[in-house]
Amino acid sequence: MQDSFEVSASTGTYAVTVGDQLLADVVREHPNAVYIVDTILEDRLPPEAKRRIRIDALEANKSLEYAPHLISELRKAGADRSTHLVAIGGGIIQDVVTFAASIFMRGLPWTYMPTTLLSMVDSCIGGKSSINAAGYKNLVGNFYPPKKVLVDVSFISTLDAEMIAGGLFEAAKICYASNYQAFLDYLACSPGLKMTDEQAVNVIRHSLLTKKWFIEIDEFDQKERLLLNFGHTFGHALEAATDFGISHGVGVGLGMLVAAQYAKRETELTDAGKDHVAHLIEHVKDMIGPRAERVLQSPAHVDLDLAMEKFEFDKKHKSDSYRIVIPNREGALALVSVSKTPETRRKILGAFSAAFDEISWPYQIPQVVTPA
């Protein structure tokens, strides 16, 4: 059970293969590569993979401060301009290796094997690195696609329910950002916390082929691809406000809820728009609504005052306006700019509150002090 397709990029075309039990093939093809692997997955590497660097997949390591350490490890491993890198891990490993591979000796070829569902359905294609800096998430980064992407669904067995839900939120986001039919086709693939290998391959393939259109038409995030920020601007704020107690994938799910609540209040949705937005909300709530205990041990308590502070400094905003992706009147997505005013902040805070009320999550709202 395997499927392949190609993605076009400015640096050339790279192949994407979705299947199972692909790791041994990589090692046979690149026995002399330097394998950069998530520490908890190192024991899955065959012994033939001699040169290896372990990285703890921690948010703190997805930073500018960590990059010199990885570059030093590459030197210790004997990497030179002819060395091929193989990255094995989730989004944190991908971000760190994308960045390091692009700057080490002005660029090394590399292969990526995503091991989290989130990286399998989304970030494994597109070639972006997103690195935390100065206390803010994904403040810096670049574009440097791998030579090959191999999605091995057997790694899904290593994931807990929260990681699977987070990956599915990213897949739902991509498909909804494309069009409502793509979202319905995604749901028809039977995404869920427990999937067969065949169901997983179908979900991943559909998500990646949908994203492929975005990245090929707008590789450098200038127009259409910006719609894939749906859920991210609000979600990143929630991640940062909880010191990453809310994971990225769950943050995206929550961020979509916030965006939907903002649209319900500030956009005159048509009947079709209301139906489409409601369908998306129900899909998210099914994972992290009242039955969230299936996914989370204990929801992180959210200080919305801090979330708003983090939201204010998102890199996508402009000096005089917030840039957010929300459903338009018909329920399709649009990137809009809204003025930075106290009234706008009140409305955004209201959308945060409404989203958390919808799923019965604990949060703390800023106290408004009325002048005497």
- The helicity comes to 40-55%
Through-space gap between termini: 70 Å
Biggest beta sheet summary? 7 strands, mixed
Mean pLDDT: 93
Strand order of the largest sheet: 1-2-9-6-5-3-4
Number of helices: 12
Radius of gyration: 20 Å
CATH class of the largest domain: Alpha Beta
What class, by secondary structure content? alpha/beta
How much of the residues is beta strand, in percent? 15-25%
Low-confidence runs of at least 5 consecutive residues: none
Q: Which architecture of the largest domain would the CATH scheme give at its second level?
A: 3-Layer(aba) Sandwich
CATH topology of the largest domain: Rossmann fold
Number of domains: 2
What does this entry look like structurally?
Helix content is about 45%, strand content about 20%. The chain contains twelve helices and 13 strands. The protein has helices at about 25-30, 65-75, 90-105, 115-125, 160-180, 180-190, 195-215, 230-240, 250-265, 270-290, 305-310, 340-360, and strands spanning about 5-10, 10-20, 35-40, 50-55, 85-90, 110-115, 130-135, 135-140, 150, 300-305, 320-325, 335-340, 365.
Q: What are its keywords?
A:
single chain, 372 residues, alpha/beta, Rossmann fold, Dehydroquinate synthase-like, alpha domain, two-stranded antiparallel sheet, 12 helices, 13 strands, 43% helix
Give a brief description:
With 372 residues, the protein is an alpha/beta fold. The protein has helices at 23-29, 67-76, 91-103, 117-123, 161-178, 180-188, 197-217, 232-241, 248-266, 271-288, 304-312, 342-359; strands at 3-9, 12-19, 34-38, 51-55, 85-89, 110-114, 131-133, 136-140, 148-152, 302-303, 321-327, 333-339, 363-364. The chain has 2 domains: 3-157, Rossmann fold (3-Layer(aba) Sandwich); 230-364, Up-down Bundle (Dehydroquinate synthase-like, alpha domain).
